[in-house]
Task: inverse folding
């Protein structure tokens, strides 16, 4: 084969990303909502839909690690992203397979060569603020100082408004059943993936899992949107995923702000229609749309 | 002394609650919000307040148990309620003291005779849906079937409207800083305690800790209000606290509904102004106010 290749072919091979062994994943399906009968304020029965939360116990190399409560839209990406965001695995190449079986509520993860010191690394428990997945194993903050976000990354105010509008128009479980959090990954103002879950940490972990399986994303700035609060874990996870701009419909907590300032992340909160607060690193926003003009457009 | 007591005195003693040894608690104080400068959509700086989340590492008999992220309004009640709701202690009599020191972010719990099998009982980790305190130790569901809520307990619709209105008018960190959850305990429509925290599970645990320290509550039905979703843990905790009616501004998840149906808890969601959905046990509601009449009142 090599004899028939020309120089261009060889250069292609040399510049191509190193082939990564992708894990084998099931594609387990589950209903995201369920219809139930309630009684309304007039005492009459009504049919509404509620989120169909279910528990998923994660086993790593046959050892029980954790039970996640999830809506179940993309359980394999969720489990992968959870392991990545908890820094229990360093990349998808360490995972051989993730098999989800809703009949028994289990995700079986097989690693290629085990997780080093897993007992020790999962011993410390931190119960965090976030909705859902409030448990992070100790040491998450330890790696924060090593994170370098692209220093020049910027988002135009008009792109920010496009993002908020895209979320507003997106079909969602929230609209039919409520009580779920949404997260979305954008490149500039272009939506890449929209995920909902009962806990917003499940949603961001699912996006992390999906990102790890992708090839390179389109050229542009990565922007993360969440309906939930910008807590320290949410900011840390975004930074770990290399995302320099995070937008929330909700606010920020003091520790979230502290971490955002430390890692150079532009944290934008209370983003609705044409209004927002930028909590940190406003130099990442290009104010190209004053609200009055944007409102008239 | 006994010689001077008459029969009435003796009957008083016989019917009085058994004297419970109360734990010694510090009363650590912390600022609940902090003023920060943000940049708004016009590019101009503004001062706003954000919730001052902080971490509190709980040590039980010098052994590190968990780190809670909290607003810090009532850390001693929070730690006590956490231990009770996790079923790690059976009552306040088992606790000698809880000492919170914000300078080091630590709560030192001293028990009277240790916690039986604590290593084993905290080994299983369930990452749940709830905002905040998403980590419950395994086995929480195990006790659910033993819970018996008062079968006759009812709430009048007009009392429900009073409760929703009391919450609406209550001064709160949410109104100044946003991004927190509130919980409140009512007896009938009378507010007993209002607690906010960055996670709604911290808020309910704080109420549980406070309840455990009180003598008997006033006569009436216990009603629990939460701004957060009615997840399974929220319903379980309410039931453990003997509360037969729970009201939420938000919705319910499928597992929350399942547990509410199982324990006989009346779960009311989407409660705003004069509207609500009753998800389970509507027989606990006395429909004494049709919305049109109530709205005209």
Result:
């Amino acid at each position: 084969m090599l004899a028939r290749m020309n120089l261009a072919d060889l250069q292609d091979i040399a510049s191509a990303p190193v082939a990564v062994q992708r894990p084998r994943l099931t594609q387990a399906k589950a209903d995201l909502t369920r219809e139930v009968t309630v009684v309304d304020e007039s005492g009459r029965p009504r049919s509404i839909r509620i989120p169909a939360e279910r528990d998923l116990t994660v086993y790593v190399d046959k050892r029980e690690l954790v039970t996640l409560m999830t809506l179940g839209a993309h359980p394999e990406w969720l489990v992968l992203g959870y392991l990545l965001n908890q820094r229990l695995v360093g990349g998808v190449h360490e995972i051989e397979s993730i098999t989800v079986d809703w009949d028994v509520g289990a995700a079986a993860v097989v690693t290629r060569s085990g997780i080093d010191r897993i007992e020790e690394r999962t011993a410390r428990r931190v119960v965090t603020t976030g909705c859902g997945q409030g448990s992070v194993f100790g040491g998450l903050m330890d790696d924060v100082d090593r994170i370098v976000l692209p220093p020049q990354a910027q988002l135009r105010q008009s792109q920010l408004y496009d993002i908020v509008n895209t979320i507003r128009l997106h079909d969602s479980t929230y609209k039919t059943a409520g009580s779920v959090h949404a997260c979305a990954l954008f490149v500039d103002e272009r939506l890449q993936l929209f995920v909902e879950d009962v806990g917003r940490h499940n949603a961001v972990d699912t996006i992390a899992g999906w990102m790890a399986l992708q090839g390179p994303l389109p050229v542009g700035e990565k922007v993360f949107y969440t309906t939930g609060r910008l807590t320290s874990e949410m900011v840390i996870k975004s930074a770990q995923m290399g995302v320099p701009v995070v937008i929330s419909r909700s606010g920020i907590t003091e520790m979230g702000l502290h971490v955002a300032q430390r890692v150079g992340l532009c944290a934008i909160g209370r983003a609705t229609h044409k209004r927002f607060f930028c909590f940190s690193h406003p130099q990442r926003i290009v104010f190209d749309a004053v609200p009055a003009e944007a409102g008239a457009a």
